[in-house]
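User: Here's a chain of 64 residues. Predict its fold as C-alpha cells.
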Amino acid sequence: MDNRAAERPSAIQTEMRANSNAGERVVARSFYSELRERGYSPKELLAVSIELIDLVTRDLPKTQ
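Assistant: Prediction complete.
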C-alpha cells in the first residue's frame, strides 16, 4: 500500500475543513459587525484583533 495515499486528506476531511473555515468566517464577521454596531472604531478593532492573536499565540504551545 502506498503510504502517501494514507497521508492525503479524504474528501470528507477536506469538506469538514471547508465547512469549519466557513464557520470561522461567519463568527469573525458577526463579531466585527457587533463591535462596529457598538461604536468600536477601526483602530479599536485592530487593537482587539491584536489582543486576540496574542492570546491565541500564548495558548498554542499548551494545545500542541
